[in-house]
């Protein structure tokens, strides 16, 4: 949801007061200390939801209306550096001499891990490499029904590409120095919330950093709260929801839930174009569009018809072909102690996805 200039101004005031009182240092220290406990394992989503809520609760001490907004970064995935979110009137853009000189945190000196200017350093100089498309994330959300698979395929893709694209403090253990961290993780949390609504509300399988199984009763690193306490929004401590999602959930417009396209009807149009893809492509990459799960009607389903998909539809000739997303760097993989074979497989799959849809003639409105 877009914020008004007044809302951005109010948020900037709260953030400045939090910085003055040492809260950014506090949260950067927590994230740094717990880093290996909360990345590369299945504490990732519930822990960051709890961390975001902790940050938001502190902000509400200064202004009860304070809330962490999400950045629909998938909408900007083709040209991230051109996003209006990174303008001088919002969070600001690339560093000048690496130091951030505009936006909400302009001229800030961060205290953790030692005194330094807030640094941003885009991964392509004045630009950023492209991130993962809404269509790819839409596919991930359909293809994985377990937390472990879903988490890996978000953490290895969109999560890393945004951190690395922005660079600077965002590419370190103390990335929460940068307010972009909170916008980014709020969006990842929003995607998790939507995946939960597709029949995975209480899905919590997988393992922690030590390889031990975890579940709803497992305690979150640092906080000790049970994972189950984070699983449902609008309840108890998780007393928030993401604006603009609930009515569209009921409408079953799944791609619009992943990202809002530039045109008002773009997600509807994109989903209709995806449904024209050959059946083998749909079965592999978009199974929910074939079987009608997640609130979508099965491809070909209409009153008086059977559900055998026709391949007679032609692809439209407006929009853009998909582009390859930025891969994870060796340094990032090492920092997170990721399994290199799994990362390589995910990167290969992401490139295959682009090739398959481009060869089929699909063009994206994003």
In short:
By secondary structure, this protein is mainly α. The protein is 44% helix and 1% strand.
Helical content, roughly? 40-55%
Give the strand content: under 5%
Shape: globular
What is the chain-wise order of helices and strands?
A: HHHHEEHHHHHHHHHH
Uncertain segments:
247-251, 297-312
Radius of gyration: 20 Å
Sequence of strands across the biggest β-sheet: 1-2
- Compute the average pLDDT: 90
How many separate helices?
14
Termini separation comes to: 17 Å
Q: Biggest β-sheet: count, sense, barrel?
A: 2 strands, antiparallel
User: Helix/strand-derived class?
Assistant: mainly alpha
Kindly state the number of beta strands: 2
Characteristic key phrases:
366 residues; mainly alpha; two-stranded antiparallel ribbon; globular
How is this fold's topology laid out?
Layout: H1 5-20, H2 23-33, H3 35-38, H4 44-62, E1 109-110, E2 116-117, H5 134-143, H6 147-166, H7 179-200, H8 246-251, H9 254-258, H10 266-274, H11 279-285, H12 287-291, H13 330-336, H14 340-359
Antiparallel strand pairs: 1-2
Question: Could you explain the architecture of this structure?
Answer:
By secondary structure, this protein is mainly α. It contains 14 helices and 2 strands. It has helices at residues 5-20, 23-33, 35-38, 44-62, 134-143, 147-166, 179-200, 246-251, 254-258, 266-274, 279-285, 287-291, 330-336, 340-359; strands at 109-110, 116-117. It has a two-stranded antiparallel sheet. Strand 1 and strand 2 (116-117) form a beta hairpin. Helix 1 packs across helix 4 (44-62), helix 5 runs antiparallel to helix 6 and helix 6 (147-166) packs antiparallel against helix 7. The radius of gyration is 20 Å and the shape is globular. The two termini are 17 Å apart. Residues 247-251 and 297-312 have low confidence and may be disordered.
